[in-house]
Design brief:
There is one protein chain. By secondary structure, the protein is an alpha+beta fold. It has a domain at 20-133 and 244-310: BirA Bifunctional Protein, domain 2, CATH 3.30.930.10. Helix content is 40%, strand content 23%. It is built from ten helices and 15 strands.
């Protein structure tokens, strides 16, 4: 039976949903235009399981349990199994889950866009990302400039780049490899580096250390750096992309290193996704993939201060 408190909460929710109508309509248009963008370029829309038997081993990400399974933090491993089976261009828009990530920029349940290209690399994905953001801004807003978090952002190409090593030196007076070794890499990145990135134009932060990039391909001449970028706008991470590691032996070794690190730190042990690893062993094409937080992209295009403003029912 509804209490007075329940009714008052329902009234507040109704008012909130009415205030969000314009933003939610823009969100719907962004999602529709995103699908059109990829379909026009020959990408196949795919759907993969949300509830998975083995959680992905990712350095700074924890998974949420669901009975004897896990809620996916990303659709990456299933999508790569599709690549291994001969699907050359695929994309997916769907829910992902990361417990404990709640705040102005995070919601435990969020919408992820991922796309993959065979016979491609991280540089092509940078072009894709630039074209996607420009297309969404033009189709949904009618312009290539937006105001966001107190900054006027210009989406016209080219977008600047900065290596992780350059950014750590410039903004934190820190050495990347030293931060990886002492476990402070993520803290330095989030607290000292990220707030300075992409204040006038979107910025690609590039060439991440291998130590925090377990699924990315290393540069042939620099085995401790990988072909990876993250895109920042006004200090907000929007996307993550890389040329994918396709060597099954090296991938298994990295999984074992991640598992041992989790064991030492007392973090949950997820095991290794053997169907994914077996697919790699049978042959994985050269490929590259991108992940985009769509709620954050909607924030950018609607000048929202908090992620809750672009979700009908935030967690």
């Amino acid at each position: 039976m509804s209490t007075t408190k329940d009714l008052e909460q329902s009234r507040e929710e109704r008012l909130s949903l009415r205030r969000k109508r314009t933003v939610l309509e823009t969100r719907a248009k962004i999602m529709a235009e995103t699908r059109r963008f990829f379909e026009e370029r020959g990408f196949l829309a795919v759907e993969t399981p949300v509830r998975i038997p083995v959680a992905a081993l990712e350095d700074y990400i924890e998974a949420e349990s669901s009975g004897d399974c896990w809620l996916r933090t990303s659709p990456e491993f299933h999508m790569k199994r599709l690549l291994a089976a001969g699907y050359e261009r695929i994309y997916q828009l769907g829910p992902c889950f990361r417990p404990g990530e709640k705040g102005r920029r995070h919601n435990p349940e969020f919408t992820m866009l991922e796309w993959y290209r065979c016979n491609s690399d991280w540089r092509q994905l940078g072009l894709d990302m630039t074209e996607l953001v420009q297309a969404l801004a033009e189709q949904c807003l009618g312009r290539k400039q937006v105001d966001f978090r107190g900054h006027r952002l210009d989406f016209n190409a080219p977008w600047p780049e900065m290596t992780v090593e350059e950014a750590f030196h410039k903004f934190a007076n820190a050495q990347v490899d030293e931060c990886c070794a002492n476990g402070s890499f993520e803290q330095v990145l989030v607290e000292q580096v990220e707030p300075n990135l992409g204040l006038d134009k979107p910025l690609f932060l590039t060439e991440y250390p291998l130590a925090c990039s377990g699924l990315s391909r290393a540069f042939p001449d620099r085995p401790n750096r990988v072909e990876r970028w993250e895109l920042y706008v006004s200090g907000l991470e929007l996307a993550n992309a890389c040329t994918e590691l396709t060597d099954a032996v090296e991938q298994e070794r990295r999984f074992e290193v991640s598992t041992e690190l989790r064991r030492r730190e007392g973090r949950p042990l997820y095991g290794i996704d053997m169907p994914f690893l077996s697919a790699m062993k049978l042959g994985m094409p050269v490929c590259a993939g991108t992940a985009v937080g769509m709620d954050r992209l909607v924030m950018l295009l609607t000048n929202a201060e908090e992620i809750s403003q672009v979700l009908a029912f935030p967690g």
